Amino acid sequence: MHSDIVVIGSSNTDMVIKSERLPAPGETIIGGVFMMNPGGKGANQAVAAARMGGTVAFISKIGNDLFGKESIDLYKKEKINTDYIFSDPTHPSGIALINVDAKGENCITVASGANATLSPDDIDKAKYVIESARMVLIQLEIPIQTVEHAAKIAHKKGIPVVLNPAPMQPLSDDLLECIHTIIPNKTETEMLTGIKVTDWESAQIAANAIGKKGIPVVILTLGSLGALVKEGDQFYIIEAIPVQAIDATAAGDTFCGALCVGLSEGMAIDQAVSFACRASAVTVTKMGAQASIPYRHEI
Ligand code: RIB
User: Fold this and answer.
1) Cα of 194 to ligand 1 centre, how many Å?
2) How far apart, in whole angstroms, are the C-alpha atoms of residue 131 and residue 29?
């Protein structure tokens, strides 16, 4: 079955506690209520794209457990093609521990489980769906060899590869060559370039540095500042919509999913980024990952 947007990445269950502030190393603090939510950067991006109206296939790996089964049921409810969600008989489904502070900032630790066993062979089983997509969206919560393999398959067929380099790790020249659009946040931008982004000027310098790696489109997501786009020599600044932040979890994922839908519908890059900024602004106003991702009519 053909899907416009193919998302390749992680599926997690998030264990979340919101507290006044994030704990320091060695410290115990009393937080608020505990929440268990569906998450994972890959899954969040697939759900965001589906809720924005995209036809989506999700390539991922879960464990043979209740968390994995519940995740698949949820993706099916979102009308995501789950034919290429593989099951690992020996590793558990991915789990993320998330602390959220009063300002909505978070700290996340992931136990990858089955996500870490999504292999190039699995990707080969999904080759048809990748090769018939309009674009492929990948993050870095799965093995980097798998990311490289999938990116090569798509690139070879001229299908744009959109990479959200989260969590950041070194990117090989082979991978960089395959990327059409990269979407790092502030922290990832600094890790990628060594440039601290504090304003639009430093953002432009950093985007130029990333562009020099041979990536045609660079989109920096800068939280409350907004997003900076570099397409060739052209820059666009998209100011953020001011919102009362409750939880930033999945804001970047919503942005990536919505952006791909906008682009696959033929929006110009600045329009698609503005659409994605509006979608992620809604996400920030609610608790949870997939629980906070809006449907299209809400933006
Ligand atoms: O981007 C947010 C996501 O990161 C969470 O849902 C968590 O599962 C981690 O993967």
Assistant:
1) 24
2) 49
